[in-house]
Each structure stands twice: as structure tokens, then as C-alpha cells.
Amino acid sequence: MKILVCISHVPDTTSKIQFTADGAALDAQGIQFVINPHDEFGLTKALQMKEAGLATQVTALIVGDASVEPTLRKALAIGADDAVRIDARPESGNQVAQWIAEYVQANPYELVLCGIESIDYNGGTVPGLLAHRMGAAFANACIGLELSGTNATVLREIDGGKEKLTASLPLVVAGKKGLVEESELRIPNMRGIMAARTKPLAVVAPSAVAAQVVSKRFEKPVGRTSVRLIDKDNLGELVRLLHEEAKVI
Amino acid sequence: MVLIFAETWNGTFKKSTFEAVQYGAQCAKSLGTEAVAVVFGAASDDLAALGAYGAQRVLHLTNASAFEPIAYGTALAALASQHRARLVVVSATANGKSLTPFVAGAWDAPAITNVLALPTSFAPLAVRRGAFSSKGLEDASAAGDRAVVGLVPNSVGLGTVGTQTAAVEAVETAAAGKSTSVELQVASGKIPLPEAERVVSAGRGMKGPENWNLIEALAQELNAGTACSKPVSDIGWRPHSEHVGQTGIQINPQLYIAIGISGAIQHLAGVSSSKTIVVINSDAEAPFFKAADYGVVGDAFEVVPKLTEALRAFHA
Lengths: 249, 316
Ligand SMILES: Cc1cc2nc3c(=O)[nH]c(=O)nc-3n(C[C@H](O)[C@H](O)[C@H](O)COP(=O)(O)OP(=O)(O)OC[C@H]3O[C@@H](n4cnc5c(N)ncnc54)[C@H](O)[C@@H]3O)c2cc1C
Ligand SMILES: Nc1ncnc2c1ncn2[C@@H]1O[C@H](COP(=O)(O)O)[C@@H](O)[C@H]1O
Fold this sequence. Notes:
The complex is a heterodimer of chains A (about 250) and B (about 325). The longest helix of chain A has 15 residues, at about 35-50. Chain A has helices at about 35-50, 70-80, 95-105, 125-135, 190-200, 235-245, and strands at about 1-5, 10, 35, 55-65, 80-85, 110-115, 135-150, 150-160, 160-170, 170-175, 200-205, 215-220, 230. In chain A, the strands form 2 sheets. In chain A, strands 9-8-7-10-6-1-4-5-11 form a 9-stranded mixed sheet, with helices on both faces. In chain A, strands 2-3 form a two-stranded antiparallel ribbon. Chain A contains 6 helices and 13 strands. Chain A has a single domain (about 1-225), classed as 3-Layer(aba) Sandwich (Rossmann fold), CATH 3.40.50.620. By secondary structure, chain B is α/β, with parallel strands linked by helices. Chain B folds into 2 domains: about 1-170, HUPs (Rossmann fold), CATH 3.40.50; about 195-315, 3-Layer(aba) Sandwich (Rossmann fold). Chain B is elongated.
């Protein structure tokens, strides 16, 4: 069985986000791009499954231009066997999903691990749209995955709790922390980094797909101006302010 | 027509459902069309009562079984095609987020998710959404004249509620899913975070899990959900489901109280769109104070019980 790990290349979580002067796009200057944090859990899970003998190959895939290659090399250094870059600058989730679906149709994978959302555009649509195009089963907000033959048992987060479900492969999972624990995440070591240089990285040309959603303009939310400090011995005042001023109690 | 996914939990409508129905009804009014809510499976709540939130009709898919994203998404897409809907509105709850791409995929319509406000235009649909985990706001626009809108719970809030009733029609669905739910583990009496109006959250400053009784007592007094910072869930003091922030659950309650949380950029990213933020921290230099409306500099072990007491006196 082969596992495809779909990775979104996103600004590091510590980035201060700025937009270009015309507000049309992210100002990427000075920003460090990383593997989308949710996707790191999927990548580690895939590697663990391979080590447990459940999978024969782990492929990391990004839809992006040449600037995403360091992120793919990092996935290879962490342990993916090979990498695929679909050479496009996506504008909308439907394009990403369709391009990945076309790739999977030509190169079948039984299990596709995605993240619950990209922390940049917070779409949360690619995994489901991909499952739809593949005709595969889907588990969102996945925090546990076990395979037995072609049957999967999935634990997913729901509002206020968890749901356990079963599905047959092919399956698309949108994972998050819990798929593996934070402490299980892997940092590339020297050997991995050296090996990554020679692992295969295929570049695939995209088909023509129109963006269904377009960004018109970005702006930063207005921050809070100043905090009102309340004496720790006068908490009745805080209660009064929450009631009368903020009107939240 | 505007279709709204009217989600139920244990047969009763979720609070986020009323918000989504009102949102859909406002869109329908602007479009000069009808607002129709879709309910799946057995429900104990009165379906006609969705009229009070602006639904003219309710389509009740009486034979639908338990939630399954592909079955539910495909059923909504079939209704949207059949009735030539302009919009499908889905509240971005756990299940709502799961089914949204299947509505979009099967109906071949754009999905605009993380939506925070009413559309500013309908042809084409233009709407404000959150991006970069609350570090940015985006005006997005859908190609074509129809779309699926994923509405963030608590974003537009609930306006005035009327007294109208909706006409209820029973319909059947033939949509099938691809997975089987085998077990639900839901803690009773807990308020799910995405829809909580008030949230009490604590971080490493609480020193250990044995001290969470202080947090829970405050949350109970406020009828609030409980949350935590990422390291608190990573070291196992609290369950992962309480982890809020950029890589956890993103929330925007009316009131967010952060106790013993330093205010790292990743934490703020997931909570800064809360309407009112109160920070309790022993370090007057904690970065969180810069992102707060009200602050108390003090030891949580002293301040939290006193605040709970003050609230008790207020509620009495
Ligand atoms: C990729 C990535 C993603 C991340 N995502 C998230 C995320 O989604 N959510 C998140 O929360 N974090 C996230 N983080 C972690 C984040 O960077 C911080 O490390 C974390 O938020 C700090 O948690 P904390 O405030 O509980 O602990 P600390 O930073 O240790 O702060 C503890 C605070 O408690 C105060 N304190 C101590 N004793 C008391 C007392 N007696 N009374 C009152 N106050 C007291 C201290 O003054 C201090 O401000 C992420 C990090 C990375 C690298
Ligand atoms: N450009 C991309 N290339 C590969 N995978 C992606 C890309 N964008 C999104 N994904 C996958 O889809 C998940 C959800 O992303 P999104 O729907 O964009 O929020 C991510 O966590 C990735 O697993």
C-alpha cells in the first residue's frame, strides 16, 4: 500500500503577517515558509505506518511553484521516500483538489493524508474536495487512525467529543494533532538531509483548472488599543465592567 | 432559493443552526428568494419553529441516518441542484466543515469557508472571511452565481427572533455515505468550544492539572466552555480537544478569560477575534496584556477564586 501525504507550504506560525500595499496579496518578504503544522502530523503518521509494515511507500506532494521545493526536501529529509511537485500557483482549493485527484488517478494511492486546514488561507476544503473527486471515503479532524488490511478505523474530533468510524480504502484523511502526538514529530537529522538531496522529486505539469474562489483584498484586523487594568483586590469592579461596559455577562 | 443545513445534535437544533438560518434568511431576502432549512433524520425539536429565525420552509429528510459527510453533503447538493439554489449556508461546526466540500463538489459550486459576515454583493458573491488564522481578513469572491458558504459560529450572532412558523415538508434522500459511525464519545454537560459564548482558558501558569478545579468553578459560574494553551494539552494536563490557538481550535466567543497564559503569537491567532478578552497573569509584562481589554495582574491562585466569588455575588 502506498501513502500520499499532501503538504501545504505556509508561513511559519511566528510570522507577523503583512499584506502588499495594494492589499492584493500576502507580502512574503522576510517570511519563513514551513510544512503546514497539521500536515506534519500526517507525515509522521505515514512514516510510522511504513515502519510498522503497513505501507511500502510514502510520497510527499505539494502543489506550488519552484519556491516550495525546500519544504518538499524537508519532508524527504524527515523520511518521505519521494516527492511530487505539481507546478502551479494555486488560487483556490478546487484547483489544488483537482490537480491532486488527477495525479492520484494516474498514480494510485490507497491512503491520502492531508491536514485539517492550511494555516495560511484557512480553507479546510482541499481534503474533502479531493475525496469527492477520488470517490474515496473521508474522515475530517482525524485524531487517530488504524489500518487492518483495507479497513480503516478512525477517531475524529467532533464538537464536544470524539467519534469513532470505520471505512474501507481508498480513504482521505484530514488530520491534526492526535494523529500522532507532538512529541512523536521528527526533526530532520544530518543523514536524512543528505539522503533527501538524492531522493526523487518529480515535477508534474498541471491541467487547466479555473479558480472557483478569488481573493480580492486583504487587510489586518484592528488590534486592541489599550488594556484596562483592574486591581486584584477589586474584582467586583471587573464584574461590573463586564456587565455594564462590555455587556458580556 | 437559499438552502441552510439545519444541524441537530441528539434531535435538537444546535445554537449555531439558528445563527445559520438567520444568515441564510437575510441572504434570501437580499436575493428576493426563499430561505429553506434542511433537517436530516429524526428530530425532537419542532421543525416549524425554524420560521422564527426566518426560514419559510423546512425540508425534512426523514429517512436520513446518522451524520456522514458524503451522504449529507451529496443530499444537500441534490436539493440545491433540484431547486436551483443560489446559496447553501452551512455553519462551520465539526460536522458542517466535514460536509461543506461535498456539497461544493457534487453541486459543482465554489465553497467560501471561514466566512465572518453577510455578503457585500451577490452577483458574484463577495464576502469577508478570516485568513492567516485571524492575523488577516480577506474579501473573497466566488466565480459564477452560486456558492456554498461556511459560516463561522458566533461570527454574526443571533439577532431578533420572530414568531413565524415554517412549512415543513417530508422528503426522502437516496444519498449514501462511505464510512460508518461506530461510537460517539461526548462528555455530557460540557459546552462545545466553537459555539461557546464564554470561554475560560488556562495555561502553564496553573502549575498542574490538579489545579483545574479553580478554572472549572469559574467556568461553571459563567456558564462557559473550558480551553487551554497548547503546551497544557501536550503535557497531558488537559485533553487536546481544549487546545485553542492557531493550530488548535479557533474561537470567537463574546468573552474569553485567559489565566496564566503568556500570549504567544500562535495562541493569540486563535482567540484574538473574541469580542472581549480578560487576562489574568502574575507577570505585568506578559505579552497577552497588549491584546486584552481588561487585565488583572496577580496570582491566579488568589485572583480566580475571588473572581468566581464576585460573580457568584453578582448572580445572586
Ligand atoms: C508550530 C507551533 C504552533 C503552536 N500553536 C499553538 C496554539 O495553537 N495554541 C497555543 O496556545 N500555543 C501554540 N504554540 C505554543 C506557543 O508558542 C506558546 O509556547 C504557548 O502558547 C505558551 O503556553 P502558556 O502561555 O500556557 O505557557 P507559558 O508561555 O509558559 O506562560 C505561562 C504564563 O503563566 C504566567 N503565570 C505563571 N504563574 C502564574 C500564576 N501563579 N498566576 C498567574 N499567572 C501565572 C506566566 O507569567 C506566563 O505568562 C505553538 C507553537 C508552535 C511552535
Ligand atoms: N498547495 C497544496 N499542495 C498540497 N496539499 C495541499 C495544498 N493546499 C492544501 N493542501 C492539503 O489540504 C489540507 C487542507 O488545506 P486547505 O483546504 O487549503 O485548508 C492541507 O493541510 C494539505 O494537506
